[in-house]
Amino acid sequence: MRIKAIIIRILKQFYRDKRTVAMMIIAPIFVLTLLNFIFGSTASSPKVGVVQTPEQITAKLKENDVEIYPYRTVSQAKKDIADKKIDGYLSFENKIPAMLLEGSDPAVTKATITLIKDSIAAESTLKPTIEFLYGSEDMSQFDAIGPVLLGFFAFFFVFLVGGVAFLRERTSGTLERLLSSPIRRWEIVIGYVIGFGIFTMVQSIIIVLYSVYVLDLIQIGSILYVILITLLLSLTALTLGMLLSSYAKNELQMFQFIPIIVVPQVFFSGLFNLDAISSTVSWLSAITPLYYAGDALKNVMIRGLGIEDIYIPLILLSSFSLVFILCNILSLKSYRKI
Amino acid sequence: MSINPMVSVQHISKSFGKQSVLHDISLTIKKGEIFGLLGPSGSGKTTLVKILIGLDSSDTGSVSVLDNKMPNLKVMEKIGYMAQADALYQELTAMENLDFFATLYGIKGKKKKEQIEASASLVNLTNDLNKPVSKFSGGMKRRLSICIALLNEPDLLILDEPTVGIDPVLRKSIWKTFEQLKAKGTSIIVTTHVMDEAEKCDTLGMIRGGQLIAVDTPQNLKEACHASTMEEAFLYYGGKSYEN
Questions:
Q1: pTM for the full predicted model
Q2: Which residue in B86, B88, B105 is closest to A181 by CB distance?
Q3: Tell me, what's the ipTM?
Q4: Is the N or the C terminus of chain A less surrounded, counting Cβ atoms within 10 Å?
């Protein structure tokens, strides 16, 4: 009854505050769309200059989608590298193959070297057939990071909006007013969780459907799992935001949690290769909700795995929420003992 | 008929860190009495009121309301409370605010509708119920806060500075409401720093620097020190500690 009153009130407040609703739904869509344009295209073909290169190698380079720029001398090619007209050149002066690369962007450097090496390797060498257990050759960078980003935006916006909403309840005196009524402390917290839960469910569904059907994000597994994961992650974000709001005196102090709580999670979310992270900090991944959500999202969206492979992260995400809920109920004790 | 007091406060003290806010306060409030707490801001009125309702706890001593030790959820159902700051949801309309708080107090259905109408007409807000609170003036917000405190037909009504920013005509009508409620047996605790308002109370507790310096009817308080105004009386009782 009282829980229902809080749920209805929260939904009504959302309805009145269209700007916040827009921020929670349109902002993630906007950013994801931008990222799709930035990372969506498969890497652009490198521009390679050729100097005295044998005909069959040039042909092979063309076959491998390399843009060819013929030069007479090495010095001309070098000048064009400096002018950023080409990414590097391949020369065969005195029949010895040599490469010079621009070298300021590791990603371009790597791609260029691989393509050139591939092309000059003799036909006769054994070429393995390449197959993929998960994913495919034309998976773009966006497909690889999209699932994690999906989780990140759900987390980020719900954390902020939920935290600020509860903070306002504290600073405006309404929380105290609530606690002067016969409502129980847990009823307030649960009301918030369900009220925001309903809203974040709608939010998750819209963002997931948009990413998959409009942005054409890779999606092999069941879309229901994707929604379930983002929902559980959002609840963790909400309960954590509510809890931290008790350590903030105003909105600005709430935003100060972003670099401490939200940004580090990105590092452990799976956007970066976790094996490469120094062991001094890598243990932190075990306590970051985004790590589990990112893992589960990748498993479902890229690898197409089912519940039997994602139930552990799901349980852990729920445990995070549960612990935060209990902490919230306890922290309300500072207002009223019972 | 009950002889037991509505509120009984026994020797409560409270300090925040090293600063003592309330010092050994005891008082009783009878059924159907308007009890005024008069004191300057910072004297501890709000802290005392919060302890009464259970929103804060005292370091020593005890508070009981309707024979139950506070805080107690069952008793809170019978208390109406209005905080010093207007604790309202700005995005919602007055009606939605009332509806929300009524539900928290377990009032439902037809009864809820009746209670909201009755309380709103007492504070003269009937025609503004569908406006969002953010469009309300300061005085209207105060009235809405009082209205919310009346929703549960409380046995004990606690109002923290209820008439700040309210025009004299309305203040008069609000006090008339208090008199009506009192006639029905409701006990009312009002904090104020306005001297002439204090005179309308049945019993007045003067509070200064966390100490209850005098408790009696306004008439007796003035007569005992031969003061013609409440202000003089307050200065007399409050000044005692500086004499000798």
A1: 0.85
A2: B105
A3: 0.89
A4: N
